[in-house]
Amino acid sequence: MDDVSKTTIATYDKTAPEYIEKVQKYAPEPEREKFVSLVKPGGSILDAGCGSGRDANYFASKGFTVTGIDLSETLLVYARDHAEKNVTFFTMDLRNIDFPERVFDGIWACASVLHLTRDEVPTVFAKFRSLLKPEGILFLLMKEGIGERMVTSGTIEGDERFFSYYSGDELKSMLADAGFTVTEQYAWNQHDRNPERPQEVWITTFAKSTG
Prior knowledge:
By secondary structure, the protein is an alpha/beta fold. It has one domain (3-209): Vaccinia Virus protein VP39 (Rossmann fold), CATH 3.40.50.150. It is 34% helix and 31% strand. It contains 8 helices and 9 strands. Strands 1, 2, 3, 4, 5, 6, 7, 8 and 9 form a 9-stranded mixed sheet that branches. Strand 4 (104-110), helix 6 (121-131) and strand 5 form a beta-alpha-beta unit.
């Protein structure tokens, strides 16, 4: 891993107990429900950057077979200890996903790809495309903005993580280049959903693999 990735993962490991507690309240519930409605019933889902397993367990409870991957060993310990049936967790880097092609019906990438550098993201999108079955569904949650940098966020005081920022049009273009068709995209402010969170805009994107 490069230095920014090491710092980000170290932050998640260090702050795991507080992060796990907080993140349970921040689940993107409208997006989860939409994703479930789009993915083939009973199909296979990759939770790409699963963290504590919050969303992976939700999808399993809806009858899906779920694979979660992450690089924070501390969060993965919690995820495995609290795993629903039909969920398997692996230590794996988004930049080096080692699964057969065309194996998943859906990929859920919730606030995970944004920890990669802007140069790395196109390759990851292409890999996502190769992992999805024809007409497979991708959910992507990214932060709106410009550039990339280390940030001390408002989620947990004193944490330091790397983030890359995008516009909706940038993401549409990058996903198209990777072989996706964007079916829905919108921006929303996290403060509107949870007043205890600071003002920050997220971009929700749903896309379908083409061909």
